[in-house]
Design brief:
Structural class of chain A: alpha/beta
Oligomer: homodimer
Strand content of chain A: 15-25%
Pfam families (chains A, B): LacI, Peripla_BP_3
Number of helices of chain A: 13
Protein name (chains A, B): LacI family transcriptional regulator
Keywords (chains A, B): DNA-binding, Transcription, Transcription regulation
Domain HTH lacI-type (chains A, B): 4-58
GO molecular function (chains A, B): DNA-binding transcription factor activity; transcription cis-regulatory region binding
Radius of gyration of chain A: 26 Å
DNA sequence: TTGAAAGCGCTAACAG
DNA sequence: CTGTTAGCGCTTTCAA
């Protein structure tokens, strides 16, 4: 039983399918009595429009796709909240949300190439994934609007933060508190996804310290795979140094939590013996009282959704904007 | 530029569109040389199948829909992980994931009714939402497979836990430790969504206590809107009682975190002066060292996805199974 | 203002 | 094995 079609409604209302279609799409050129008859037939039959057929006919889908790595990460969730918030409201409630999780680096290219077709989604939100010129070209060829979140490409609208500046903020915060020997725990720059934010944060951080006269000690930078436990191990190594750091800057809150845990296991008191500062300000940070560099994740997701929706409506291109989001330090109980 | 169609490929390969379609769908009745010619044409043209057209033609969508309230809740995320894990693998990688967030109770009915159509999704995963007979009937009428997670209905496959038993486990855990005066912090039974798990947990909990000879004191049950801070306030009230409880059972980990925070603010030491036990065992619980009743959220999501995929493949119905998941208590540092 | 007809891109009988 | 022919359900000229 495939449910009533537009023809059934037409027959019942004594009009043509075209007229029903017009009523359904709020076309102004339908006489009021006709509209009413059609509407009545729609109600009686419990008719609802078939989205697939409509999409095929008009040539675009009424869904927006979100491509994310680690759908599991708290920061991703936070951003998704912002996206959902925007999709669920106003005139855009019509767009559905398709989620594409990119768990392995090998899925990365595939997912993008797969999606670069207007028929599945009306636009793409690409989070935290580096994108190549060829991929952008593919999107352009198919006229598929896309916006980048936490990623950058000159030909795509994007919402970003200044990771280098974030590192500086962390450095300043710790310098003011008298720290001179400071460790860093973050992602390995050669990670399979090509993420660079951790490395950018580290650079900003170290440079700011050097400008303040603090010499860099390579032994204090510990890089490894992303993850709470991995970060814990890195921090443990740092704390076991003959001359351990008095503070640690972690490239993300998740990693900072790992650092905190390592300190606890080694009986190092925070913040007295070790200050810890993270990055992101996810929910968790507030819960554990972590001092961190806050980036407006949720707002970023919402903004990106708005940008995408606007690009879809606008159709044509225009110069891609870059929205830079403000970073602030949120002081809590770990520094 | 709408990209090459199946006809373009057909022309180029010197065959009919039907043959191209057969090749695309791995039909066995195509001669190898023909298949190769078609494949070559596909590659040269960079052709990719239009999902919308295919869906319209075969009459079903290649996506599964997930309907969730509070997309924001950690437990929901955890379950989604399980779902994504299953969708991303094996022969089912072909299914996309559509997310339908139900933020307000008023969206509840709408979302479901809207989705009860084969044309947008091939099946539905409904999480934590009570579902009415009428809604089930609508799903059946449209032959739309659906499975319930953390919800129940006799005519739908479902994965559930025994919340009452969970409450009992919490009671047993606290009784063994000598607690007699125990508070409960949970959701109000008359919540707008119709959630009942909190209340079920409370009942199992109180009944177990009574069976052990501990009389119930209504003043020790504090119910309010779901949320960390709300739970904190409820707990604060409990702790300010002339005769405060020595332990608190929270209906969820999120609420337990609120309780912990309240204790901290009131300088009540955990677990010495106050034992706290939560429910769910989300990531957070491990991080803060919360003792809790563990329900396998991720596995539940995965299982539900498998059930749904199976139902979709099977087509017809069969007797809906109920998968009951095991509950265990995970002892950490708050009891 | 409404209807007829063609078509979106693909699949699925049915012949051959 | 492969091609022809009809749709799937909706939109959209083009006429009337």
């Amino acid at each position: 039983m495939r449910g009533p079609t537009i023809r059934d409604v037409a027959r019942r209302a004594g009009v043509s399918a075209a007229t029903v279609s017009r009523v359904l799409n709020d076309s102004p050129l339908v006489l009021e009595p006709t509209r009413e008859r059609v509407q009545a037939a729609v109600d009686e039959l419990g008719y609802r429009l078939n989205a697939t057929a409509r999409n095929l006919s008009i040539g675009r889908a009424m869904a927006i796709g979100v491509v994310v790595p680690f759908f599991t990460a708290p920061s991703v969730i936070e951003r998704l909240r912002g996206v959902v918030e925007r999709l669920g409201r106003g005139e855009h409630r019509e767009y559905d949300l398709m989620l594409f999780d990119v768990e392995g680096p090998e899925q990365r290219g595939g997912a993008l190439r797969d999606l670069a077709r207007r028929d599945r989604v009306a636009g793409l939100l690409i989070m935290s994934l580096p994108i190549s010129d060829a991929e952008v070209a593919a999107l352009e060829r198919d006229e598929l609007p896309a916006v980048l979140v936490d990623g950058t490409h000159p030909r795509l609208p994007r919402v970003v933060i200044d990771n280098v500046r974030g590192g500086e903020l962390a450095a300043e915060h710790l310098l003011v508190r008298g720290h001179r020997r400071i460790g860093f725990v973050g992602d390995h720059p050669a990670n399979p996804y090509g993420f660079t934010s951790s490395e950018d944060r580290r650079r900003g951080f170290r440079n700011a310290l050097e400008r303040a006269g603090v010499e860099s000690d390579p032994a204090l930078d510990r890089l490894g795979p992303h993850g709470r436990e991995e970060a814990g191990e890195l921090a443990a190594a740092l704390l076991s140094l003959p001359e351990p750091p008095t503070a640690i800057f972690a490239a993300s809150d998740l990693q900072a939590i790992g650092v905190l845990r390592a300190a606890e296991l080694l009986n190092v008191r925070v913040p007295d013996e070790l200050a810890v500062i993270g990055f992101d300000d996810v929910d968790l940070a507030e819960i554990v009282g972590l001092t961190t560099i806050r980036q407006p994740l949720r707002e970023g997701g919402a903004l990106a959704a708005d940008l995408l929706l606007a690009a879809i409506d606008r159709g044509g291109s225009g110069v891609p904007v870059e929205e830079q989001q403000a970073l602030t330090v949120v002081e809590r109980r770990t520094t």
